[in-house]
Amino acid sequence: MADFEKTGRTRVVRKPDRGRYDRATVYAILDEALICHVGIVEDGRPVVIPTAHWRDGDRLYVHGSRASRLLRAMGDGAEVCVTVTLLDGLVLARSGFHHSMNTRSVVIFGKADPVRGRAEKVAALRAFMERLAPGRWDELRPPTDKEIAATEIMALPLVEASAKVRTGGPPGGVPPTTYAGGAPATPGGPVDAEADYAHPVWAGNWPIIQSMGEPVPDARLAPGIALPAYLRHGRG
Predict the structure, then answer these.
(1) Per the domain annotation, does 235 fall within a domain?
(2) Fewest CB within 10 A of the end CB: N or C in the chain?
(3) pLDDT by residue (tens digit) across 105-163?
(4) What is the mean pLDDT of residues 167-192?
(5) Ordered DSSP codes for 20-40
(6) Who wins on pLDDT, 36 or 231?
(7) Which residue, among 3, 203, 230, has the nearest Cα to 135 in the 3D structure?
(8) CA distance 101 to 177
């Protein structure tokens, strides 16, 4: 897969060593995240809407009601900015100035195309459901024509995008095993001013881990329905 071209909008300026332009990194972040934020300009004012997303190949999809102002604007050809962020940890340094967060984020620019036709919509919705819970689509009641007609789906070509990744340690990509001078580097840890390392306060990486909890059955679940395998093993 060819890397994304760096543009004036996607080039990472602040901490450029954390910029990533390869599709593998960008797609991995998009596929792990469940929520994106879509920014548009409406009546001369910025509007940012959180929504679920999914990726299929080189397109990012969002969906919702046909009455959605976001989807209406996208359907009218509005330029959008889509962002996704994964928070991996808090970085506690020896000064407030050097505190940080370990994050993986993606920024995408472009114009989306509406998905037309019943078969195309069903295929897109199937991809969305399979992303959430592989195997679930075939268990569900098929969507009705009315439901499909009431659903708007927009596909954003992944052409102008970049990622920014903070994994800790010295700048320049993958942290070495030691800092300058031979001190061991802590993955995801702070980068303090040299004079601050002797300050007597705890410092390090405080990881944030997101996991799926135990499924809670609906009160009206029909008798005899067992927990499906994809829920026993979590979202994979």
Answers:
(1) no
(2) C
(3) 999 999 999 999 999 999 999 999 999 999 999 999 999 999 999 999 999 999 999 99
(4) 61
(5) E--HHHHHHHHHH-SEEEEEE
(6) 36
(7) 230
(8) 20
What does the CA dihedral 53, 55, 60, 66 come to, rounded to 10 degrees?
A: -50
| Residue 93: inside a domain | yes
C-alpha 154/C-alpha 80 separation (Å) is 12
Amino acid of residue 112: A
**Structural domain for 116, as ranges:** 16-209
Mean pLDDT, residues 165-174:
58
On whether the CB atoms of residues 74 and 40 are closer than 8 A, the answer is: yes
In the predicted model, what is the mean pLDDT of residues 77-92? 95
> 187 is written with which tokens?
């993955």
- Is residue 227 a part of any domain in this protein? no
- pLDDT value for 101: 94
Among residues 68, 65, 20, the alpha carbon closest in space to that of 42 is found at 68
The backbone torsions φ and ψ at residue 126, rounded to the nearest 5 degrees and listed phi first, read -60, -45
- Asked, for residue 69, whether it belongs to a domain, the answer is yes
Q: Which two tokens stand for residue 90?
A: 């808090």
Question: Phi and psi at residue 187, in whole multiples of 5°?
Answer: -55, 125
Whether 169 contacts 187, CB under 8 Å: yes
